[in-house]
Design brief:
α8 runs parallel beside α9 and α9 packs parallel to α10. The chain has one domain: Histone deacetylase domain (Arginase, Chain A, 3-Layer(aba) Sandwich). The chain has ten helices and ten strands. The chain has an eight-stranded parallel beta sheet, with helices on both faces. Strands 3-4 form a two-stranded antiparallel sheet. The protein starts with a strand and ends with a helix. With 314 residues, the protein is α/β, with parallel strands linked by helices. β3 and β4 form a beta hairpin. Bound molecules: zinc ion.
């Protein structure tokens, strides 16, 4: 089993102000842990290409593309433009967003071509809150949704799964695949919490959306129970030809943007369950993209646990 790691220096240039938790330091924290863990020499690294507009447009309306491109501060300009209260763009954001989506697409191509079993995209801006019609919640383009549409449209896959273990509800991914039962989505998310969506009070949840709200202070043992009770039966029933992961690490006990209690070994355990499903139905194929995770040390350590499990090293 082999694993490829996609990233790009352009992803460090997008920033939204010193106060903002979604900062370039996040990728540097992951890089530090990659070196400290010795994992750096065991996985292949590739630079993320720029996504094609055609890739973006499989998920997003022209308005999303234009709202970023038309409001981009000029090169050399130091200001920001606010797409919403906490989603800003600087002069480098357009290229960073194309690299983030491009990583997800290139990772999908490399894994489907059989070059690697699994891929991790250490990219920002993140993606899972971006809906077909709006950038929001620190996210410009929905990187994982773009990769999935690419896998379906270009590679002709018939059934895939997207697993979202970020602490926030992946509203953008859910909105993208609401009417597409080829895509099984499984997630847990703290509720109530931003973006205050994902609850189905009248039981109207479509069968292919297994998104489970959990209260604050939920810990890893409870999450593992839910994975076994709800995620795994749905995944086995769906028999995905490929698994995509929205890998957010903000459900970590040390992360202050939310109040859940996961630790590194929980991320490793969840990842091993997904690797087993992928081995059974999907030739081991997994593409994972970074979403949230804002405590720098906890983020770096958790990504290493996730990566080791993806690479079959733990
Ligand atoms: Zn999050």
């Amino acid at each position: 089993m082999s694993t490829v790691y996609f990233s790009h220096p352009d992803c460090l240039l997008h920033e939204m102000g010193e106060w903002h938790p979604e900062s370039p330091a996040r990728l540097q924290a992951i890089e530090d842990q990659l070196i400290a863990s010795g994992l750096s020499g065991l996985i292949e690294r590739r630079d993320a290409p720029l996504a094609a507009i055609e890739d973006i447009r499989r998920v997003h309306s022209e308005a999303v593309v234009e709202s970023i491109r038309n409001h981009l501060p000029a090169p050399g300009e130091t200001g920001y433009f606010a797409l919403d209260a906490d989603t800003l763009i600087n002069a480098h954001s357009w290229r960073a967003a194309l690299r983030a989506a491009g990583a997800a697409v290139a990772a999908t191509d490399a894994v489907i071509a059989g070059e690697f079993s699994t891929a991790f995209c250490a990219v920002r801006p993140p993606g899972h809150h971006a809906t077909p019609d709006a950038s929001m919640g620190f996210c410009l383009f929905n990187n994982i949704a773009i990769a999935i549409r690419h896998a379906l449209a270009v590679h002709g896959l018939k059934r895939v799964a997207v697993v979202d273990f970020d602490v926030h509800h992946g509203n953008g991914t859910e909105a993208t695949f609401l009417d597409d039962p080829r895509v099984l989505m499984v997630s847990f998310f703290q509720s109530p919490l931003y973006p205050y969506s994902g609850e189905y009070p009248n039981g109207e949840r479509p069968a292919h959306l297994v998104n489970i709200p959990v209260p604050a202070y939920t810990r890893g043992d409870r999450v593992r129970e839910l994975v076994q009770r709800d995620w795994l039966p749905a995944l086995h029933a769906h028999r995905p030809e490929m698994i995509f992961i929205s890998a957010g690490f903000d459900a970590h006990r040390e992360d202050e943007l939310a109040s859940m209690g996961l630790i590194e070994s929980d991320y490793a355990w969840i990842t091993r369950q997904l690797v087993a499903v992928a081995d059974q139905y999907a030739k081991g194929r997994i593409v994972s993209c970074l979403e949230g995770g804002y405590h720098l040390s906890a983020l770096g350590r958790s990504v290493i646990s996730h990566l080791k499990a993806l690479a079959g090293l733990a």
